[in-house]
Structures are given as structure tokens and as C-alpha cells.
Write a structure and sequence with these properties.
107 residues, alpha/beta
């Protein structure tokens, strides 16, 4: 069973650029209700996409540099990175099926 990795301003770029598979980043905050609702959905998807996608989280309050770099204006926001580059963005809450379909469309 894999777990969600937590990224920050210091390790974000290196992690995204050296990943051997696509990386999904959940931009979130502890005070955000919809973000908390996304957490169990992402936990389920870690196992579903094991070996195909790495699922990560980045706290927008603690990491303003990366948050600003990707123009995050609403949370939760999901960005899928392939070969270090953002290929798709999904702002707002999404159900399990919607999130799974968002990821699969880009693989």
C-alpha cells in the first residue's frame, strides 16, 4: 500500500522533474472543507494508480511560491504533471469517478 507524498516549495521542482511516472499534485489547505473531502478520494486512488501515477499534496498556505507559480486561485486544485510539465488542471472538488477519469484521460 502506497501513501500520498507531501511536497513543499523546497522539494517540488526536483520531485516533479525527476519522477519516473506522471505526478498528480493536490493543492490544498487544512482549513478547506472540500480539500478535506478530497483526501479520502485521493487515498483510494493511490492504490488504483500505483506504478502509473504518483499522488502528492502541497499545502498552499505553507508553500506560497509554488502556489503562485501555478496560479492556484481556488482549492482544492489538481494538476497532473508529465515529464515535469503540467498537462492538465482540475480546480475544485471532484468525486472519485471524476478524479479517476481526469487522471485516466491524460495517461
Amino acid at each position: 500500500m502506497s501513501s500520498i507524498q507531501h511536497l513543499n516549495d523546497q522539494n517540488f521542482r526536483a520531485f516533479i522533474e525527476t519522477a519516473h511516472q506522471p505526478v498528480l499534485v493536490d493543492f490544498w489547505a487544512d482549513w478547506c472543507g472540500p480539500c478535506k473531502a478530497m483526501a479520502p478520494i485521493l487515498e483510494q486512488l493511490v492504490d488504483t494508480f500505483e506504478g502509473r501515477v504518483t499522488i502528492t499534496k502541497l499545502d498552499v498556505d505553507a508553500n506560497p511560491e509554488t502556489t503562485a507559480q501555478f496560479n492556484i486561485r481556488s482549492i482544492p486544485s489538481l494538476i497532473l504533471f508529465v515529464n515535469g510539465e503540467p498537462v492538465a488542471k482540475h480546480p475544485g472538488f471532484a468525486s472519485l469517478k471524476q478524479t479517476q477519469a481526469f487522471i485516466e484521460r491524460e495517461l
